[in-house]
Automatic annotation (TrEMBL):
This is Leucine-binding protein domain-containing protein. Residues 40-383 form the Leucine-binding protein domain. InterPro entries: BCAA_transport, Leu-bd, Peripla_BP_I, TAT_signal. Keywords: Signal. Gene3D superfamilies: 3.40.50.2300. Pfam families: Peripla_BP_6.
Length: 398
């Protein structure tokens, strides 16, 4: 396996610590070893088309990498993967979910479109098949017994940055400007930032829908922000807009990096989005719950293997799907040799403890979302390659 010892990898990458696992397994009868257990079917709901297809590809890679390291098994049971194209709309995603239900999957992993989760929430609860959402989830969506999140809530990048800047800029007294594109996610980010940072956070500027990413389009917004003379800017803009916005700020007399620091959600610089930024985005700070530079044993091994296998750095999306597989692995391990059902798996997920992950250890909170550490990264050159260079910890959220 690319020169790496398989037994060592399995020891390092066993994903979850569960209280009472050893005792529970010791109580099982000797009949039916893990290798003899019946197979299970797991659904992957990931986009193969549309704007989120790169995220979907990483979700699929992360989940399958975990299976590759565990002989294609979860909880000692052979796994059959059913993959459905989530597409780009809530309608296509809901139809793909129904196809997975028809295939009688035991659980579903994926969902790249945050708008899809609230759209299918009631259907998931009706079907009673656990869904492990491995991408950003709407912060305002009420928790649901059969929906688990292994990535993050949409307002958490803003919360993490606001906590950091509040400490750095005089307990929230330094002025911070906000700019966002319209939409639910943007609104949640702005609300999250202001709720933590306080009165020093200026009213958000909302970019009109359909704006073209040119310096001229952003000149007005950059001018308004320059007039406010902020110490920092928190921006929620598409990756393809960031460099144009930074250029417009410089033209307005507010040069990013020297006159003002620019902060953004980590997804703006994750995976393919980092390639879209180009060198013009150097100096941009982002908040994310994962960095390929994290100095822990699980990440050293995972990151090395991912880069060797796919010739690129792993993303937070791949890690979230990898961890979803790890969580299911331990839930099915807890089931022992007993008969499985989707509701039973959902109950066992509640007994999963701390996840030993490449992102650092985390666990589910009462809302079935991760309680995890967030990290500050900076877009910089790492040799000849543009990278998210790890700067420091930000906050533990969840």
């Amino acid at each position: 396996m690319d020169g790496l010892d398989r037994r060592r990898l399995l020891g390092l990458l066993t994903g979850v610590g569960v209280a009472g696992v050893t005792g529970g397994l010791a109580g099982c009868s000797s009949a039916g070893t893990p290798s003899e257990r019946s197979g299970v079917s797991i659904g992957l709901l990931v986009p193969a088309t549309g704007a989120n297809k790169e995220v979907g590809a990483d979700l699929e890679l992360g989940f399958k990498l975990y299976l590759d390291l565990h002989d294609g098994k979860l909880g000692g049971r052979p796994v059959r993967i059913e993959v459905e194209d989530e597409g780009e709309s809530t309608k296509s995603g809901a139809a793909a979910l129904e196809n997975l239900y028809k295939a009688q999957v035991l659980a579903v992993v994926g969902v790249a479109n945050p708008d899809l989760l609230p759209f299918i929430r009631d259907r998931v609860e009706e079907a009673k098949v656990p869904l492990l959402a491995a991408h950003a989830s709407p912060a305002e969506m009420p928790s649901a017994p059969y929906i688990w999140r292994t990535s993050y809530l949409t307002d958490e990048p803003a919360l993490a940055i606001a906590h950091y800047l509040r400490r750095r800029l005089g307990n929230g007294s330094g002025r911070v400007s906000l700019i966002t594109v319209p939409g639910t996610a943007g609104a949640e980010l702005m609300l999250g930032f202001t709720s933590v940072y306080g009165s020093g956070a200026q009213d958000a500027i909302t970019v009109r829908s359909g704006i073209k990413p040119t310096i001229g389009d952003y000149a007005q917004y950059a001018g308004e922000i320059a007039d406010r003379n902020p110490k920092a800017i928190f921006c929620n803009l598409p990756s393809s807009h960031i460099v144009k916005f930074m250029d417009a700020l410089s033209q307005a007399g507010l040069k990013p990096g020297s006159d003002v620091e620019l902060y953004a959600p980590g997804a703006i610089a994750e995976g393919k989005a980092l390639d879209e930024l180009t060198d013009g985005a150097r100096g941009l700070f982002t908040a994310m719950h994962y960095s390929a530079d994290l100095n822990n044993l699980a990440n050293h091994t995972f990151s090395s293997l991912f880069q060797s296998k796919f010739q690129r750095s792993p993303t937070a999306f791949a890690v979230a799907a990898y961890d979803a597989a790890a969580v299911l692995d331990q839930a099915l391990t807890l089931a022992g040799d007993g008969t499985l059902s989707a509701p039973k798996v959902n109950t066992l997920l509640s007994n999963v403890g701390q996840v030993i992950s490449p992102r650092g250890n985390w666990q589910f909170n009462q809302q079935r979302s991760p309680q995890q550490k967030w990290y500050l990264r900076k877009v910089e050159k790492d040799g000849p390659i543009l990278s998210n260079v790890l700067i420091s910890d930000l906050a533990t959220l969840g």
